[in-house]
Amino acid sequence: MKKLLYALTTVVIMIGLVGLSPSLVMDTATAQGISPGPKVAMGTPMVKMDKKAQAVIMGAGFQPGQEVSVLFTDVDGVQADIGHALKPTPKANKVGAWVTTWSCGRYVAKKLIKAGAYTITVTDSDYNVIDTTPVSFYQAKAKKEKKK
Questions:
Q1: What class does CATH assign to 39-139?
Q2: Where are the domains of the chain?
Q3: How far is CA 33 from CA 26, 28, 29, 36, 37, in A?
Q4: Measuring CA to CA, which residue among 65, 68, 61 is closest to residue 34?
Q5: Is 46 helix (H, G, I), strand (E, B) or coil?
Q6: Which positions ≥6 away from 145 have C-beta within 8 Å?
Q7: Is the pLDDT of residue 62 over 80?
Q8: 89: which residues sit within 8 A by CB, 6+ positions away?
């Protein structure tokens, strides 16, 4: 009787593990090599805070020709569309990738950016969130004067 109970318990555990294993290892789309969707990354994940500060933002997995909006959340939690400070305007090329440079020195000068981590949010034209990525700003160290 004990052997039958152990065997039955083992079978139930094995069926459970086999049934759960795909979700524990990877999803079906990843297993088949299909991209799970558009992704955004910072080409410049750490930006030195000065009046000429620039950050590279890029994305892949978008629809060819798709235009996106890029939002930045300031220290007060206010989210702003930074499209006016992006060159070129982010638009996916024929393979669904794009890259742009954000001239963020004005945000530093206006003290909207302080040292720390922030979030860049990429949305579609209706401001539906597609993806987010972190960016970090750091204060440049003061130069030491050389002694004569």
A1: mainly beta
A2: 2-31, 39-139
A3: 11, 9, 6, 9, 12
A4: 61
A5: strand
A6: none
A7: yes
A8: 67, 83, 100
